[in-house]
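Form 7-S
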Amino acid sequence: MRDGAQFEMRAADGDGAADTLALSGSLRVHAIGELDRQLDEASPRFTRLDLSEVADIDTSGAWLVMRLAEHNQAEIVGASDKAARLMQAIIDIRQSEA
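Output:
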């Protein structure tokens, strides 16, 4: 596995339509800058965001995942316990600030 974060568009149900954005590698602050730029340039459209191949994640990575999912109204799948806790913490902070 490479050090940085990568993405790939995949078909979730085998019909050939690429509807899943699969992220992999490290979604930590030191590794997501280039991924964010690549995603911005590619502007992929997806309904699922797969985190099953993410090796590690921090708050910056969780924020990026949530921003991508919200922008595309996508379901997040394959999140590790750590990723789920970080995303829930972001949700909790947002709710307390509202």
